[in-house]
Amino acid sequence: MRSHRISDVAEQAGLSAATVDRVLHGRAGASPRAVRAVEQAVAELDRQTSALRLGARSLVLDVVMQAPDRFSGAVREALESQLTGLRPAAVRARYHLRESGTVDDVVTVLDGIGRRGRTSHGALLKVPDDPRVVAAIDDLAERGIPSVTIVTDVTGSRRIAYAGPDHRSAGRTAADVVHRWGATDHGTVLVTLSRSSFVGERTRVESFVEQLACDAPGLTVRRVTDADGLDASTRAVVGAALEGLTGPVGVYSVGGANRAIIAALRAKGVTPFVHVGHDLDADNLELLRTGALDVVLDHDLREDAGSAVRAVLQHHGLLPGAATSTPSGVQLVTRHNIPARLRPRSTP
User: Fold this and answer.
1) Which residues are within 8 A (CB) of 18 and not within 5 positions of it... i.e. 6 or more apart?
2) Top CATH class, 52-164+301-328
3) 300 exposed, middle or buried (CB, 10 Å; 0-12, 13-18, 19+)?
4) Which among 53, 112, 165, 298 would be 20 to 30 A from 28, CA to CA?
5) Are the CB atoms for 246 and 187 separated by under 8 Å?
6) Is 340 helix (H, G, I), strand (E, B) or coil?
7) Cα angle vertex 120, ends 197, 116, to 5°?
8) Three-state DSSP class for 264?
9) CB of 238 within 8 A of CB of 224?
10) If the chain, 348 residues long, is cut into consecutive pieces of 10 residues, what is the mean pLDDT of each piece?
11) Any idea where the domains of the chain sit in the sequence?
């Protein structure tokens, strides 16, 4: 634990140097929460040491995400792949991750980043679209801390850029897949969201519903939302939504938790005529390989992470040009065209 300076650990953990010193030296007076924060900070610094270079300007980015661990872990991996060897600055990330919570929880985190002031050079945010969040982002901007929204936007805020997929294109593509793959002119499509306060998911669903109404007006959409993409709560709400359904059933999973969705379907004896998901996280990749998922609409999180970091560097004048929003393309993936970087390595 003592390979890093106390000041660096304190900055990464968001604690005072005195508290970190007590934890590192095993002295009394440090709470269990502080101990966990220091341990996490040291682990993050260990992982990111290769990104730091002597003589370069050092920047710290606060990453604030409300998402299931499986997705926030994928974002963390994508971001750190972009930080290694970055020029012309050495950038490290400080994480504030939660699987669920209220808007007030998010605002508290953002307010804390603002109060620490100069210890943060930017915020990368996957957070709800809410007026209170808008106000917190605007307050960060007033304090000179730029924000970039990733994967889902916060409309009307003073964020400097959005880095993530084109949600309208994704929703329309999903509707086309459901229409063509199912080859049915009646039935119900379950559309599952993690939380309706995420504008990216709302946009996907709106575009999906509009396109499906044109392509397959006989299909009915039933929305299932606000289970945070967590397995237990998603299985419960999907199971309830299946009650009383007759005829063909399809699934468009906007917010994840596909293992739970499949378990709920099987418990009711329902085999969907198509199951479309989003993002090639570890769960979805395995479900796609085994045929439990038919199609995954994927976007390269590494591309999104790189765009987000570049926007912050441009804001600080460390790269040429102005920070701009750069939506990434959406790729339709089946078990037959899984990207090479995600395929199992063949043994000699």
Assistant:
1) none
2) alpha beta
3) middle
4) 112
5) no
6) helix
7) 90
8) helix
9) yes
10) 68 78 75 78 66 60 91 90 78 90 93 87 95 97 95 94 94 94 86 91 95 93 89 92 89 93 94 94 92 93 92 91 87 90 60
11) 52-164+301-328, 167-298
At a CB cut-off of 8 Å and minimum separation 6, what does 228 contact? 66, 68, 99, 100, 194, 195, 234
Q: Phi-psi region for residue 236, left (φ > 0), alpha (ψ -120 to 50) or beta?
A: alpha
Q: Which two tokens stand for residue 64?
A: 């604030």
Four-point Cα dihedral 17, 18, 20, 21, nearest 10: 110
Tracing tokens 């994480």 back to the chain, one arrives at 95
DSSP assignment string, 82-107 = HHTT-SSEEEEEEEEEESS--HHHHH
- The alpha helices in the chain, defined as continuous H runs, are 6-13, 17-24, 32-48, 69-83, 103-116, 131-142, 167-182, 199-215, 231-242, 258-267, 282-290, 301-315
User: In this structure, which amino acid lies at residue 181?
Assistant: W
**Pairwise CA distance, residues 82 & 313, whole Å:** 13
**CB-CB contact of 288 with 335 (8 Å):** yes
99: Cβ contacts below 8 Å, ≥ 6 apart: 66, 67, 68, 69, 72, 228, 230
Parallel, antiparallel or unpaired: strands 161-163 and 219-224: unpaired
238-270 burial, b if ≥16 CB within 10 A, otherwise e? Answer: bbebbeeeeebbbbbbbbbbbbbbbbbbeeeeb
For residue 63, what pLDDT is reported? 95
What is the DSSP secondary structure assignment for residue 346, as one 8-state letter?
P
Beta pairing, strands 122-126 & 89-98: unpaired
298 and 331 Cβ atoms separated by less than 8 Å: yes
Strand, coil or helix: what is 13?
helix
> pTM of the prediction?
0.78
Are the folds of 52-164+301-328 and 167-298 the same?
Answer: yes
Amino acid at 305: A
Q: The domain 167-298: what is its CATH number?
A: 3.40.50.2300
What token pair was written down for 193? 């969201």
Q: Before 88, cis peptide (omega within 30)?
A: yes
- pLDDT of amino acid 56: 56
